[in-house]
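Let us practice reading a record.
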Amino acid sequence: MATSYQIPRFLVVGGVNFFFTFAVFTISLKLLELPYAVALLAAWFLGNILTYVLNFLWVFKPETRLTFRARFAKYLTAGAASILLNLAGLAALVELAGADPFWAQVALMPFIVVFNFATAKWWSLRSGGSKP
């Protein structure tokens, strides 16, 4: 599938994930009364499962059958790298440049989205990549 078709689909998946992870975080925090760090981790992990499935089946389609082997491990690794890069960039903008955290995060979002798209398209969900 051409990149021009994948980008809008990838953005839709990201939007769905935003609402999904927000709901998981809120339910975990308010209803289940989990500590905020556990709630965040649960939301991140479940969000990665959701986006992996949607990106695998609808956006990148690297194979005809959904698998959770090496590709999923790569996908989680890329997700962890993404959040760490986001945190490092946010800390740099806030602590070193004195930026407002909200606007710093808004400014970082396009870079994080591009990073996530690139790692999915050319590494974790690449057609002909890791075979199950």
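A brief commentary: The chain has a mean pLDDT of 92.
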